[in-house]
């Protein structure tokens, strides 16, 4: 398609595969591992220096909104999380079932409010900050929870070989 031309949605060409587990109730009590990528995987949130994440101003905004999720969603508990240069990982625990705010709604709110603040800091309006979707994994047992915690904790040290690292 040439620049400047518009295209209509064509369900035969523009198929979006759902990342949701078919038939699973995402308001169910449990732990979820979430990865949310920056739009076009831009390194907006800081950089890795000597195996440590150094947050930019935009990265601090992401950190703030993630760290305060439980204040806006009474049924959410936060576990391990990390903000990386172009994505963030976190473990969300739905401690109680909520008919209004399932896990997908919690993430939608996080993306909306953090993007609004990031665009305010950048002095722009409506510019995409996050990719449209995100990765989520239902954590089914304690061993998986411990493995994912270690993965999140080590993510800055393994940045050089991370598949989301687009600088290498």
CATH architecture: 2-Layer Sandwich
Globally, the shape reads globular
Overall average residue pLDDT:
85
Beta fraction of the residues? 15-25%
CATH superfamily: Transposase IS200-like
Question: Which stretches are low in confidence, meaning pLDDT under 50 for 5 or more residues running?
Answer: 1-7
Major sheet characteristics: 4 strands, antiparallel
Helix vs. strand class: alpha+beta
Strand order of the largest sheet: 4-5-1-6
Sketch the topology as an H/E string, one letter per element.
EEEHHEEHEH
Number of helices: 4
- Helix fraction, binned, reads 25-40%
Number of strands: 6
Radius of gyration: 17 Å
CATH hierarchy, class:
Alpha Beta
Distance between the termini: 30 Å
Q: What is the CATH topology?
A: Alpha-Beta Plaits
Number of domains: 1
Report on the architecture of this protein:
With 168 residues, the chain is α+β, with helices and mostly antiparallel strands. It has helices at residues 57-67, 69-72, 103-122, 142-154; strands at residues 30-37, 46-49, 52-55, 76-83, 87-94, 135-139. The strands form two sheets. A four-stranded antiparallel beta sheet has the order 4-5-1-6. The protein is 29% helix and 22% strand. Mean pLDDT is 85; it is low at 1-7. The protein is globular and about 35 Å long. Helix 1 packs antiparallel against helix 3 (103-122). Strand 2 and strand 3 (52-55) form a beta hairpin. The longest helix has 20 residues, at 103-122. The protein has a single domain (30-156), classed as Alpha-Beta Plaits (2-Layer Sandwich).
